[in-house]
Input
Amino acid sequence: MMMKRLLIMILILSSTNSFSFSQEFEFKNVKDKTQKVNLKLMAGRICHNLSNNKFTMYSYFGGNRNRAFYNSCAIVEYELTCLGKIENTEMVYGKKFCIKPIKFKARQVQLLHKTFTDKYACKKIFDNIVQEKKSSVFKCSFDRGSERIDEIVDFENDK
Output
């Protein structure tokens, strides 16, 4: 029964829709005027540092359909606190993960990158960060997801 629930959770989180969470970012345009842009969370990767049981989420924001901000994007690092128990889940996650329930509290740690003009370069930077983390002490389990991510991650607004 537990395995069935975990497989269902993986299927839910493997969708390619954007998350319902969005965040406001400030960009300077070519005339050096600061503008606020609302971007949606498009991709996220939850990584677990196995040596100290810390969770981090690397997030790619974009998806603004306004023509002026279409190429805007940002990469944000969040520190996650497991609100459940960290237990062995060998068959699905390899070692340990936050379960019973799978629930996290997210706090923004830092803005890693933002651009007003090149969302493709931003996505490449995001992919490189994730690849770098995967080859270190981190075990990265959850990848892109759907609006269901809001069921397992609560975002804090203040830093």
Observations:
- The first helix runs from residue 2 to 13.
- Residues 11-18 have pLDDT under 50 and may be disordered.
- Residues 2-155 form one domain.
